Structures are given as C-alpha cells and as structure tokens.
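for the record, two folds in this file. i put them one after another cuz i was lazy. first one right below, seq on top, structure tokens after. the second one comes after a little note so u can tell where it starts
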Amino acid sequence: MVYELVRIPAAIYAYTFLRARAVAAQNVPERGPVILAPNHFSFMDHFLLGCHLRRKVRFMGKSQLFRQPLAEVFMRGGVFPVRRGASDDDAFMTAELILQRGGVVGMYLEGGRSRSGELQRRAKPGIGRLALESGAPVVPVAIVGSQRIRNWRRGGFPSVTIEFGEPMTFPRESDPGRLRQQEVADAIFTQVRLLHDRRSQATHPDPHHQGSAGRGAPLPADE
C-alpha cells in the first residue's frame, strides 16, 4: 500500500514532466524471481523504472541515501541499503531472500550514478554475483535521458525512455569467484550498452555519433 502511495505521484511526475515512456516492458516476467539491471544517471531512476511495471521493485541503494528527510521516502519506495565500496553480504542476503520469495530486485550494474552523462566504462561484479548465486533471470534495462532531469531548473524538461531487454539466464553457482562474477556482469552490461546506444541514436540522431557499441541494426518499433 505504501509503495503505491509513493509510486503514484512519481508516475504522474514522470509521465507529465519527463514524458517518460517504456519500451518492451513485457520482457519483464509477470511472476517469479527476476533481477532488473539498469544503468544509472539520476536519483529519479528508482521511480522511473518502478512506475512502468505492475510488479513491486525492490532496489539496492547506497547507504548514504538513508538520511532524513529522504530516508523514509526511499525505504517506503522499495529501496534497501547497500554499502558502496565494500562487500556487503547483508545486502546480498536481503536481495536473495526477495528473489527466493518470487520478488523483483533492481540493481544498478555500474554500482553508482554516472556523473558524466555517459555510461561508465565497466559494470561492477556485484550484478554478476547476484545473478549467479540466485539463478534468477536478469533483464537488462537502458534508461535514456534521465541525466538531463536537472535541467528543469533552466526550463528544460527531458524526454526519458526506459527500454527493457530480453531476459538473460546464467547457471546457478553457489560460490562464484570474482572473475566469474565480472564475466557475467560484463555480459549483462554489453546488452545494456547496446540498448542504450541504439535508443539514444534513435531519440537524438547524430550522423557523427557512433555510440560506444557501434550503430548496430535498426531498432524495432516501440511496443
């Protein structure tokens, strides 16, 4: 109930001012455990992702977010803390418990917000660890345009698109090494980068911009 009370005004803001839209949201399974693996530009990304899905999304968020006055909003909005720069076993235990109960966990695969407005060079291994230890399918997600949300102070409201890729699955491993975690994280990030670069090119075409993953094939029609 509280989650919906946070989700509804966030959705109104997203649809009205950010012109937010979702592409291929049907790629998120309607039931059962699933991990959402988006890139991260804005503090609004939590809410942008959640407002396009019927399912409740529980997000890992940096522990620094849990300070007043926003701590209550994030907690009731489905976010649970993770200590950045450390191997936070408690956060992974919480995430795996949610998945065992058939829930949805969102984890930013870059580990934190990109301040440059571009995708970071590489994913953190944590998303690989969660995918391997849980065995849950992973849906790569590209969030395009949220890096421009701050421009509202200058009268510029961005257009934000959230594109959901096809689920990826990996054989379950009880104790994957760091290299294996990074290998899986890189595979997921490759798909996110492809979705992001293609969608960026379609939304803001630039004949001189190749994107970090190349041009690739044309995008399918929005669904």
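(here's the note) second protein begins now
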Amino acid sequence: MTGEHEQKPAPSRRPDRPSLSDDDREPVASGSEPPATENESGQAAMAGDPAHTESALDSVRRERDEYLDMLRRVQADFENYKKRMLRQQTDLLERAAETLVVKLLPVLDAFDLARAHLEAEGSTDAKALLAAAGLLSDTLVKEGLESFGRAGETFDPTSHEAVEHEPAVTATAEDGGADRAQDRAASGEDLAAGRQEPVEPVVTAVLRPGYRYKGRVVRPAMVKVRG
C-alpha cells in the first residue's frame, strides 16, 4: 500500500429545475366549480333546445291523459257495479215479499169463502174476523197486490186458467134475424145458411180469483169459459 489515499469520484448532481415564481403560476379562482362532464354538457344542451322541451311536454301530456282515461273507466265501472248491486238487492227483496204474498193467498181465499156465512151470521166474533180479513186485504193491496178475474171479460190464457168450457153461442143466417142478414148481404158478404160467425172465448164464471203482485201474475184466475 502506498501511503496515498484513493480519491472517490464526487457524486453527479442533477440540473436544478427552474423554480416558478409567484408571478408565473396560474391563479386559481376561489370557489370555482369542477369542469362539467360530457353527459351533463349534453343534458344542458338538450334542455336549452325548444324542440326537445316541447317533445317532453307532449309526452307528459299523453301520460296524463292516459291516467285520466283510466281513472274515468274505473269510476264508471264502480258506478255500474253499485247500480247492479242495488238492482240485485231490490230484486231479492221483491222476490222475498212476493213469496210471502203468495203464501198468504190461501188465507184470502178462506176469508172469501167464509165471508158470506160470517156476514149472514152477524155475531161479534164474525164481525171481528171480517175486520181482520179486511185489514189483511187492504195491507196487501197497499203493497202492490191486486185481484182480477171478472165474468164477461175476454179469456186471456196468460192470466186465466180455464177449468170448464161451454159451447159458443153463434149467430147464423137463419137465426140472426132478417135485418142482420140484409146488412150482411148489402155489404157484399156471401152468407150461406147455417154458417157460423167466429166468437171470442169469454169468461162466464170465476171459480177462484187471480192475483197480480206489482204488475206480475202470481196466480192465474180459475175460470169457466164459453167459446
């Protein structure tokens, strides 16, 4: 070893960057917002477009009209439902009342059959029973019950039940009288001897009265018919 010390190379130094002075730096405004994104910029541009705004309003109006139409349909359906339920309840009540009235018809028949004997009797009990029968009949009439079936009226198969028949009384050229035959001849009709005129069936006797309840036949009248 020599007595001389080896010298180490000095470390290389990087060139210093020039430092920016306060004047060279860009000023930053206090409270400034970050730059807008691309999506936000597009929305802002579309919001400022009158055509796009009008299109959006039209879409909202159509949606509003659809909801209003739906609400009207629901309201109309509900009103129809209430009317239908009211009709059903009314029909049920009327049918229940009609069933009760029909069950009371034999009681009225019994009073009608006994009225002649009770009126002839003239006792206190008979008068009380007749008063009760009249009260029941008046109450049912007020509720819509009406009797029908009279002798002399035209037979109606929808409201009469024929249980007996009599032959029709017809007029012929022989027994119709000279005046009637002359009238028929003057009118140009060819009336031969023994020819019968059509006669409508007529009720001659009522064996049991019929009843209607609120305009509907609940029991036909049992009658005797001629013709």
